[in-house]
Amino acid sequence: MAMVVNAAAAKKETTNVITTSITNCTFSYNAAEDGGAILSDSTIIINNCTFTGNTASNGDGGAIAYEPEASNAPSAPAKSTAPAAPAKSSAPAAAAAAPMAVSINAFVTSCKFKDNTALYGGSIANEGNMTISNCIFTTNTAKYGGAIFSDNELNITGCTFESNNVSNGYGGAIYNGLYQKEKAALTSKFLVANLSKVSSDVGPYLTITESSFVNNNAINGDGGAIATTGDANINFSRIIGNTAINGSAIFNSGDLMDASLNWWGSNMDPSSNVFGNVTVTPWLILNITANPNIIKNGASQVTAVLLYDSNGTYHDPANGKLPDGIPVTFTGSNGTFNPTTGILVDGQAKSLFTANTKGVTSVSTTIDNQTVSIAVTADPTLTNDTNVTNDTNLINSNSNFIKTSNTTIPMQHTGLPIAGLILAILTVIGGTIIPRKK
Asked: Which site from 44, 86, 177, 292 is most exposed, i.e. has the minimal number of CB atoms within 10 Å?
């Protein structure tokens, strides 16, 4: 049985809106027509909750249905059969003030959703203004939006969507569009022909940042990760391993969708992962650095970097970055890494490489389906007082420095033994001080 959060009392006085907070709760195996666990039409805050196995099999939101109806707009004035009485003034009567519009929103933060089921939105169905942050959606199922269905305004930040599914439907993880139960049953052809170019002043609106979409599926459907007919943008997100008939990652039949500055699991052009009016350029690419790239009796810090796009532009993580926690591995020959695995934090992951053989060797880092490498030179004969600047050293055939931007050039070897040098000095001194015999 679902928890029902009702704003009916607030509708009579629109300046007083009910806000419900639900924190640290677990909802398991509940069922209802809409909102298997929670049905709300008022402002609601849901934090650090777990939703497992909840169902709205023929309705909306296997775990949560947020249906504020017209609560975000002014209510219609009450009907009257008599004309309004004139104001007691010589001035024209003022028009009656419309009821004040109220702001009704939903916030879902740090929650986990697993194995929830519905027709629209396996975990969440949104018909209002909803913000979802730092949540995890796993193996949820629906026909429209395996994890989430939204036909209004939805903002998603820092969420993970993995192995969610739709069957003969749209949006393995997310469906952003109008309710199809109000329209004829549709096919991909119908969707493109009749729901394309949804006006931006109608919505719905979807914004996604710093999130992950991994191995979601639209089985016999479209949009393995996301299907949208409205306005949508997704940036600084990880999108890999999703499958569908059309748009293995994204299916769009609405206005131009901005899907730039994402990581698609490799440095290759990701255009084949999208269907419809979607821009993916530029995309983020994996780089590797080694500092120093000439190792002297020590180690080199190797860094996996996902802060540059396919045009070579750097993106400060303070202004947008991939989600933290993406797995990274390090490998190399003729030496060892410590550690050999890590995670991306602020677009970077670091490890120390220690060479065990003199000479040039290759070190590599791998994220998802992409491996990149860089050469480093191990020369344990270099002295510790030599300054090394990464990527600026010029090396001669004997692996000695000949020029660097910030490098002190060491004393060159002359081949003269130190004992011979001392003997020559003493000979000069002896000839100067001791006179020859006559």
From this structure: 86
Q: What angle do CA 61, 65, 67 make, to 5 degrees?
A: 140
Residues 233 and 218 in one domain: yes
Distance of alpha carbon 339 from alpha carbon 19, whole angstroms: 48
- 186 and 276 housed in the same domain: yes
If asked whether residues 310 and 264 sit together in one domain, one would say no
Residue 328 covered by a domain:
yes
The range of the structural domain enclosing residue 161 comes to 3-72+100-283
Q: What is the pLDDT of residue 178?
A: 74
In a domain, 81, yes or no: no
Pair (22, 40) in one structural domain: yes
CA distances from 272 to 66, 242, 249, 280 (A): 34, 12, 9, 10
Tell me: do 250 and 129 sit in the same domain. yes
Do 310 and 250 fall within a single domain?
Answer: no
pTM attached to this predicted model: 0.76
Q: Tell me if 344 is assigned to some domain.
A: yes
Under 8 Å between Cβ of 306 and 313? no
**pLDDT tens digits for range 167-187:** 999 999 999 987 654 333 333
DSSP character at residue 318: G
- Please give the backbone phi and psi of residue 192, each rounded to the nearest 5 degrees, phi first: -65, -40
Find the radius of gyration of the CA atoms of the chain. 33
CA distance 314 to 308: 4
**Which residues lie below 8 Å from residue 338, measured CB to CB, with a gap of 6+?**
351, 352, 354
Q: What is the pLDDT of residues 286-334, one digit of tens each?
A: 999 999 999 987 899 999 999 999 999 999 999 999 999 999 999 999 9
Main-chain dihedrals φ then ψ at residue 243, nearest 5 degrees:
-135, 150
The string over 245-254, giving b where at least 16 C-beta atoms fall within 10 Å of a residue's C-beta and e elsewhere, is ebbbbbbbbb
Looking at the structure of the chain, the number of domains it has is 2
- Distance separating alpha carbons of residues 203 and 183, to the nearest angstrom: 17
In 61-177 the beta strands, taken as DSSP E runs, fall at: 64-66, 105-109, 112-114, 117-120, 124-126, 129-133, 136-138, 141-144, 148-150, 153-157, 160-162, 165-170, 174-176
Place of tokens 């929670």: 38
Dihedral of CA atoms 209, 212, 213, 214 in degrees, nearest 10, equals 170
